[in-house]
Specification:
Layout lengths: L1 E5 L10 E6 L12 E6 L2 E7 L14 H10 L4 E5 L2 E3 L9 E2 L3 E4 L27 H14 L3 E2 L3 E4 L8 H10 L3 E3 L5 H7 L3 E11 L15 H4 L3 H19 L2
Parallel strand pairs: 1-4, 1-5, 5-12, 6-12, 7-9, 8-10, 10-11
Antiparallel strand pairs: 2-3, 3-4, 6-11, 7-12
The structure holds hypoxanthine.
């Protein structure tokens, strides 16, 4: 069964026929909200809003371990994560989606593994390709059929937040090889891999990163949530929902 993790701008899916809501308790605490079980394109799925239903949980305080654990505990084997990002390349206009292929993790102080504590074995998962390639391909195929522009690969820089970056930090991320920047991609992807869940992301590119393009002088919103209070972002989310419906219907 598919699990969908919605980020900023996607706190719920109106097209979802909700069957029940259930608060799951995990050994790691509670997930961001009760899981929402429902039917989308006639398929059963589970939805979870990463920042909680009222968008109250900032990226560094999300209980990523509880979220992924809860989804697996109810039978989720594949996760599509939706996570807005800033785009680093000035030549790329915000307004399209990117399906990232790689990650560089700059986060710190987050609980980033299930393999800790005295009772757990030492385990190092392979993370060469952080996203599930088959799920990534499914997303790309459907996205190319539905949308005008799709960026089919990219290196996602996962930053700590909640503040946005300095222009120099963005220059450094670019030198490191990153194309997009966001605050929630890790440790989510690694935790899914630890639990053998196929995981891939859809990243709406909602703004130019700090010091670039339209964000040359400043990024003109105080919360990333505010970013989605505009037509461009809202249209992107409509596209993202259509895309998710198509992918889910084919499974
Ligand atoms: N930086 C970090 N996270 C983000 C951004 C950004 O510019 N846009 C959306 N999430």
């Amino acid at each position: 069964m598919f699990g969908i993790i919605g980020g900023t701008g996607l706190a719920s899916i109106h097209e979802l026929k909700v069957l029940k809501r259930e608060l799951i308790r995990t050994p790691y605490g509670e997930p961001s909200q009760p899981l929402i079980f429902g039917s989308l394109s006639n398929k059963n799925i589970v939805f979870l809003a990463r920042h909680g239903s009222g968008h109250t949980i900032p990226p560094h305080e999300i209980n990523y371990r509880a979220n992924i654990w809860a989804l697996q505990s109810v039978g989720v084997t594949k996760i599509i994560s939706v996570a807005t990002v800033g785009v680093i390349d000035e030549a790329v206009k915000p307004g399209a989606i990117c399906i990232p292929s790689q990650i560089i993790d700059y986060t710190y102080g987050r609980k980033n593994t299930y393999f800790d504590g005295a009772e757990m074995p030492v385990k190092h998962i392979d993370f060469t390709y952080p996203y599930d390639e088959s799920l990534r391909k499914q997303i790309i195929t459907s996205a190319q059929a539905l949308l005008k522009t799709v960026v089919t690969e990219g290196v996602y820089a996962a930053v700590q937040g909640p503040r946005l970056e300095t222009a120099a930090e963005i220059n450094r991320l670019e030198k490191d090889g990153a194309n997009i920047v966001g605050m929630t991609g890790m440790p989510e992807a690694a935790l899914a891999k630890e639990l053998n869940i196929a995981y891939a992301a859809i990243c709406p590119m909602v703004n130019h990163a700090a010091g670039r393009g339209q964000s040359k002088d400043a990024i003109s919103f105080s919360s990333i949530n505010e970013l989605c209070d505009n037509d461009v972002c809202q249209h992107m989310m409509i596209d993202v929902i259509r895309l998710i419906q198509t992918i889910v219907s084919k499974n």
